[in-house]
UniProtKB/TrEMBL annotation:
Domain DUF7884: 10-92
GO molecular function: methyltransferase activity
Residues in the signal sequence: none
Domain of life: Bacteria
A Pfam family per the record: CMAS
Family: Belongs to the CFA/CMAS family.
Protein name as catalogued: Class I SAM-dependent methyltransferase
Keyword Transferase set for record: yes
InterPro entries the record matches: CFA/CMAS, CMAS, DUF7884, SAM-dependent_MTases_sf
GO terms (BP aspect): methylation
Amino acid sequence: MNLTEKEFVKFLSKFDEHPFDVKIGDEVSHIGKGEPEFKVIFHEIPSMKELLTSTSIALGEAYMDGKLEIEGDLYHALNMFLGQMGKFSTDKKALKKLIFSSLTKKNQQKEVSSHYDIGNDFYKMWLDETMSYSCGYFKHPEDTLYQAQVQKVERILKKLYLKEGMTLCDIGCGWGYLLIEAAKKYGIKGVGITLSKEQKKKFEERIKENHLESQLEVRLMDYRDLPESGLKFDRVVSVGMLEHVGRDNYELFMKCVKSIMNPGGLFLLHYISALQEHPGDAWVKKYIFPGGVIPSLREIIHIAGDHQFYTLDVESLRRHYNKTLLCWNQNFQKHKDEVREMFGERFVRMWELYLCACAATFMNGIIDLHQILFTNGVNNDLPMTRWY
């Protein structure tokens, strides 16, 4: 083993909470105490400069390029390793443009499109029939992904305490399943907004298929345009969209939501959260969610209070998201050959790394998933006990 390789192994040796083996050429080094949980094989090692600039990008790209292989189960290895992400190196100055990207409407439209407009055919392969791309709700361990997504939407709609004739806005509506269910089961009228042309197209098809043209519509719209829209709603919901807003715009987001709400209305916010305010992972920002930032629970609660949003309920679904991601990865693995034909081997490795790494970070509590139910001002008309 040469000096460079020894330096590399020394860098990895700090990640010793769970024992593992590192193989470089014919040399195998053991890190940690006890039997190895997994083995990492390096066909080519990243430079120390790359590792210190961004450990996440250096190791992530090595896996994407086939320079790094995991012997055994990828999720298990990541679950053992990523609980130590606090030891990763990130040079924020060198990565400033990547980590702190522009919050302009034009740039955020581009960022959202880069992820969600990959193509409906791609997402259809590994999502469930509802086309829900957010955390499911598993009532029972044996629930299927489809059951979990149906149950998630049912739970959200119950929390919103909907009644026939009410109006509902879904900010970041995805492919529209939630609004369709709300219209069919509760008789509401709703508007969904999205920045994804592919999602809008599919949602419009679903509205016609379900004969809901008189109840639902979908608009290609930035949340910042809501105050000038003239729209007013009894209920507002946002599922998995806040992560794209950016830390400097959380207060603006809450103001925009408030501007379209009737007094006493309910607002359910479902989003990936964190214990503390971090700028986000560099590899995820570069390859998966450009501009994505994970809000902390406390900062959202704090901002909400400043705008007379009263917090009724907070629920964590962290382990539900871990299971959701493992289900997605299971589906993805079944369609790898098709995805490879569409996008190539590097994309396949990138996407499975994304799904397994996210599942591991949820399991390790690095990120969480919270649903918060707010009222716009005081509402004394709701039941005094939980109704879901």
